[in-house]
Fold these 3 entries.
Entry 1:
Amino acid sequence: MTTSSTGTAGAQPVTSGFAVSERTAHLRAESALFMRDHVLSLVSHDLRGPLNAIHSWAYVLERKLDPNDPNSQRAIVGIRNGVDQQVKLLETIVDATRAETRSLALDYAPFPLHPLLDETAEEVRSGLARVRGVELTLNSQLATEQLNGDRERLAAALWVMLTFAVESSAQGAAVTLESRADATSWHAAVTYEASTALVDTSLPHVLETFARKQAREPREANRIAWVLALCKRVAEAHGGGFEQQDAAQSAPATLSLRVPLSAAAAR
C-alpha cells in the first residue's frame, strides 16, 4: 500500500455536513460541469431520433390527407414547425452549452505516473474515505514510467473514480486502485463493493445528490453513470477509454481507465 500526504491551504467549504478542502470542492465542481454536459449530450442524441421520425411521418401523413382541407394542412405545418423548433433548440442551446467540454483543451507535458497515484489517493482519503471509514488501498506496478498528457485532467479523472467508489462503499469496506503500464498504455482500475451507502443521506457525501441517485438506476448498454462523465471525456481526449462495469455475482464493481503513454500522438 502506497501513501503520501498532501496539504491544501485556504478555506474549508462544507459539503454534506463536513468540511472539505478547496481542492476537493474544485474537483467536485469540475465533475458536476462534465456531468451537466454529458446529460445534455444524451438529451441531444436521444431526442433527435424521435424528432426525425415525427418529421418523416408528417410527410407520410400529408400524402394521406385531403390537400384541400385547411385544418389538416394547418396540423401538418404545426407538426413540422414544432419539430424544427425543437431541433433548433438542440443546436443553439443544448449543443452550444456543452461545447467547452466537447472540445476539451489539454495541456500536454511528460510527468511521472506514480506520484500522481499517491497524491490523488491521499486526496480522496483525507477528503472522504477516512470520515466514511472506508479503506483505500493502492496497488501499483509502476516504477519510473512517465506519461505525456494533461496531468491535472488525469488527476481529476482518477479522483472522480476513487471518490465514486468510496461513496458507493459501506463503512469498513475496501476500495482498491490497481495501476500498471504496458508497452503503449497506462491502465488504472478501481474496484469496490457497491452498497446503498451511495444514497444514504445519513452519511457524509461529496458528489451531487441527484448524481448519486441516478448512478443507482439501471443503465443502458455501454452507458456510464452521469457522474463519471469527466473520466470518460478525459480518457477519450487523450486517445484512451473508460469503462464502468457493475458487480456481477460475487465480483466487485470496477471502473477502468486506459490512456496511451504518448497521449499527445492521439490528438
Entry 2:
Amino acid sequence: MDSEALNTFLTVYRSGGVSSAAKILHRSQPAISRRIALLEDELGVPLFERISGRTRLSDAGRVMVPYAERAVAAARDAEDAVRALTRSNSGPVALAVVGTLAGGGLATIMKRFAREQPDVELTLRTATSAEVSGLIRRGEATIGLRYDISRSDELDYERLFTEPLQAVCAPDHPCAGSRVARLADLRSERWIAFPEVPGRREITASHVFALFQTHGLGELNWTAVDSLTAQKRLIEAGLGIALLGRSHFADELRSSTLATIAVGDLAAHQDIVAVTRRGGFLSMASRRLLEIIRAHYTSDDITAVGRSRGKTQAAARRARARRKS
C-alpha cells in the first residue's frame, strides 16, 4: 500500500469522483480507476460505491480516510526532511490562513519572509478555522493561522495574540469616539455580522446574540454579511455597527473612516493561534516563517492599533461637529 495509491484514494474522495480526481492529478481516468481497483484488491474490500450516479465512500472507505491522511502526510514529511538535508532554505512552505487574518499584517509577514528566503516557494491558502486545521492535519499546509484553540491529538496550537473586540461605527455616529456604560445602550442599533458557517470562528451573528443574552437582553436587528471588507464599507456608510477585532480595522482607524464606541461592561476577545502538525517535520524555512509570525504578533505594529484609539476618537468628534454644523 504505497502513498501514491493512498493519495489517489483521498483525491477521489475529496473531489467527488474519478473524473475530477484525474484532472487534479493530471492522470487519465482509466489510470485513476486502475489505481483504486488495485488498492481495493489489496485490502479485499470496496472503498467506494456508486449511489444515484454519484461516487460515495463505502463503510470501509470512511474508516480508511483518517489513516490515509496520516500516511500521506507522513510521506510528505519524509520527503521534506530529506530535501532539508541538502539545502538550509529548502521549500516549499505552505501557509493556511483564515480569510479575515489575510490583511496588511500578513502581507508584512510574507514580504519579510520572501526577503530573507528568496529561494523558498511560499504558497498561501485561505479557509475557515476548521478548514485550516484540516489542511495542517492532512499535510496540505505547513503552518496555519486561525481563531481559537481546538482540541486535537494530532495538532499543536500556539496562542499568538489575544485580540480585544470593539464596537465599531461610522465616524459621524452619535456615539463615535465616546463611551456608553452598558452594552444594553446599543441594543437598538442594527448590527452587522458574519452569517453562521460551520468551522468559522469569526464573530458571527450568533456570537453577537450570545453576548447580548449574557447581559439579559433579547433579540437584535442584524444584517448578515459574508465579507469583512463589505462589512466595513456598510459601517462607514452608517448602515450598522459591528464587533470587530482591532487588527481588522486598523487601516480605517488610521484614516479616520471608522471609529469605535467604548462599552463599559463589554469584555470580549478572540485568540489568534498558530497551528502545526504534532510530530510533523518543519524545515528550517518553515521554522523561520513561524518565528517571523511570532515576532509580528508581539511587535509594536500590533499594540500600536490600540494606541491609535485616542486619535480616532478625536477625529470622530470632529466629524460629528462637521455633521451638526
Entry 3:
Amino acid sequence: MAGILKRLSGGLRTACAVSLLTVATFAAAQGVRGDHPDTYVVVRGDTLWDIAGRFLERPWLWPEIWQANPQIQNPHLIYPGDVISLAYLDRVAEARVQPGPRQEAAPINAIALSDIEAFLKDLRVVDGFEHLPHVVGLEDDRMRGAEGQVAYVRHLQAEPGDRFSVVRPTVRYHHLMRSGMCCDLFSTDDLDFRGRRILDSRQFWTNVVTPDKGTEVLGYELMRVGAGTVTRGEVGGIQASTLLLDDEGYEVRVGDRLIPVDAQPYDLQFFPHPPAQQFDYGRAKVLAVADMLTSGGPRDVIAISVGAREGVDNGTVFSVWREGTNTVDRVEKGEYRDPDTVFFENKVRLPDEFAGHAMVFRTYDKVAYALVMDSIKPTRVGYHLKHPDAPY
C-alpha cells in the first residue's frame, strides 16, 4: 500500500520524502492488489478508504502496512498533492510517499465528512434524559415553535445569554437477553412526546415470553431539532425560563429537552482498523438504519449494538452479514410439511450471507454509529457484524 509521511518542515521533510515503507509480512503482502497503479497523486475529495482500495484487497489493513517503517511517527496523515507509488523489489512490496505541492493544510480523511456530518451534529445516544430541562409551553400557546419565536422551559439552571440545543428523544435501543436459543434479541422502541416508549404489540409477546436474563437498555437516541438563547430565567414568580429560538431546524414542541451547546462533540479524523476483539455470535448487530429505513447501502448510516465497553472505537471496521435461514429439508421431511410444525433443532441452518463493510465513526458506551462503506447487497436491521476478514 502506501506510506504516509508526517508533515515535516524544511530538510527533515525532504529527508523523509524518499523513505521506503517495506511490507514485512507475507500476510500484508498478500493484501496488495495485483492491478494497483504504479503511482497516484492525492487530490482534494479523496478518502483514505478509496485510496487504500486502489492498492489493497482489504482497505482496513492500510495502517499495518504503512506503519512498517518505524521512522514515520504518524503514518496516518496524507495530504492533497502527495505522490504515492508502489513497486515490487524481489517480490516484496515497497511503498513510497513523496510530498507534492500541497495546497491544503488539512489531511484527507478516511471518509468524506459530508456523508456523516448531519449524524455527527444532530444525533447522539445517552443513558438517560429524564433529568434534562424540558419545554413546557410555546409562544401564544402554539403547538409548535420555530426560529424567531420563544419556548418556555422548566428546570433550566442558566443565565441570560447561555445557549442550548433543543433535542428530542426519539428511540430507545434495548437488548433482550436469552439463553438456550440461537442468540439474544436487539430491537428499538419509538418514544412519544414525553420520551416514554410506545408499546408495540408486535414485540410485546416476544418480550414477555422469551427473556430469562432480563432486558438491558442500551441507550436513548436524541435528535437535535434546534437551538436557542436564554433571555430570561425563572424570576418574579415565573416558573419557566424563556428561550429564544434562533437556529433553523425542526419545529420545537412540548416535551423537547435542552442540553448545553457543545462546540466540538465529535472526532474529525477516522483511521480504519479491525475490531480489537472477537464478539460472541449474535452480540454485534445492526439496530437501525438512518431515516427510519429498514435497509441501506453504501454511505448510509447504521446504529449497531456494541460500543466502547466492548472495545469498539471510531474507525473500527466490521463486515455485515445476513443471518442464514433455518429451513425445512423438504426432501427428508416431505414436500408439503408446514415449517411451523418442525422444531428449531430439526431444521437445517444455512450459511450467513455477506452483505458489505461498515466503519464506526461515533462511539458511545453501548451503541455506536457506523457508515456502510461498500456492499454487494442491502444492509438490513438485524444483520450480524463480524471481523472484516471473517470467511463466513
